[in-house]
Automatic annotation (TrEMBL):
<feature type="transmembrane region" description="Helical">
    <location>
        <begin position="7"/>
        <end position="25"/>
    </location>
</feature>
<keyword id="KW-0472">Membrane</keyword>
<keyword id="KW-0812">Transmembrane</keyword>
<feature type="transmembrane region" description="Helical">
    <location>
        <begin position="73"/>
        <end position="97"/>
    </location>
</feature>
<protein>
    <submittedName>
        <fullName>Type II secretion protein F</fullName>
    </submittedName>
</protein>
<feature type="transmembrane region" description="Helical">
    <location>
        <begin position="238"/>
        <end position="263"/>
    </location>
</feature>
<keyword id="KW-1133">Transmembrane helix</keyword>
<feature type="transmembrane region" description="Helical">
    <location>
        <begin position="275"/>
        <end position="295"/>
    </location>
</feature>
Length: 304
């Protein structure tokens, strides 16, 4: 009975640690932004600790190096299970979690870049309808989109250019009458910036054939917005599939907690007996294979 109580306490502690990590790491940035924009009144004195340099560095480390949270969780499980196997698993999980998080960040950046291209089309159309010439309108639209993109490129103002190294070439071409379509096509090679090739085509047609640039950019913006809506609808339809993947990932943890609640000691059995080690290896392999296959299926549904 003592072993069962210890196992139950271990799973409860692991659950508490996971909940704390989730609350600290996975907080939505929109909530913080909404509080800054819409909550009136001076800042409370008890919140002044957030400006301390040490705490700022610690918070930055927590937010930007989330994969290292695998290590304290592994240490906790190693202490409760009296085994070094959780430490080895935690060390192996760090690069995998880092790779997953970088891929997730790249996908988000691609989506934001695609939204910025649509916003660029809208800004240029607005400048052209206001009577500005095309080069000046494109420069103003690029500056406006760059100001909006500072929140997700480089982490703040001046942190980077949303078009990468090609932004200076596009601005120079638009300002001094250079090859604007060529510069836009070069910038379209960036992740999520494929819509700039449409802007380059509209610009080329307007320059060579005399067609209206406003009408072309307006239609391109409509197409990009429609693609965004289709992407959001598809993501909403696949939310149930992703929920199934998460449930499948948590089932083994729930099984261990249920075993501990029934009075068994699943951690001791899995980490200190030959049969438990065999089950742990086979179960871990099957769990990883199942999650990989399920994620691949869902990702295939998300692909354009």
């Amino acid at each position: 009975m003592t072993g069962g109580a210890a196992g139950y306490a271990a799973h409860a502690a692991a659950l508490c640690v996971g909940a704390a990590v989730w609350l600290v790491v996975m907080r939505q940035p929109g909530v913080r932004r909404a509080r800054v924009l819409f909550v009136d009144g001076p800042a409370e004195p008890w919140k002044a600790w957030r400006s301390w340099p040490f705490l700022l560095k610690a918070r930055k480390l927590v937010v930007e190096r989330r994969e290292w949270w695998c290590v304290p969780v592994a240490v906790l499980l190693a202490v409760l299970g009296a085994s070094v196997l959780p430490l080895i698993a935690g060390a192996m999980a760090v690069p995998l979690v880092r790779r997953w998080m970088r891929g997730r960040a790249r996908r988000r950046q691609c989506e934001r870049a695609a939204d910025s291209v649509a916003a660029l089309c809208a800004a240029v159309v607005g400048e052209l309808r206001a009577g500005h010439e095309p080069g000046r309108a494109l420069s103003a639209g690029l500056r406006e989109c760059a100001a909006d993109a500072e929140t997700w490129v480089g982490g703040g103002p001046g942190g980077g250019a949303w078009l990468g190294d090609a932004e200076a070439a596009v601005l120079a071409a638009a300002r001094f009458g250079g090859d604007v379509p060529g510069a836009l096509r070069q910038a379209a090679a960036g992740p999520g910036l494929g819509g700039l090739s449409g802007v380059a085509a509209c610009w080329q047609v307007a320059v060579d054939g005399g067609a209206g640039l406003v009408a072309g950019l307006d239609r391109l913006e409509t197409a990009l917005r429609a693609d965004r809506r289709r992407r959001e609808e598809l993501r909403a339809q696949l939310a149930g599939a992703w929920s199934t993947v998460v449930v499948l990932a948590l089932l083994p943890v729930a099984g261990l907690g249920l075993g501990a609640a029934l009075g068994a000691d699943p951690l001791w059995v899995l980490l200190h007996t030959p049969g438990g080690l065999f089950c742990l290896a086979v179960g871990g392999f099957l769990e990883a294979a199942g999650l990989f296959w399920a994620c691949r299926i869902v990702r295939g549904g998300e692909a354009p």
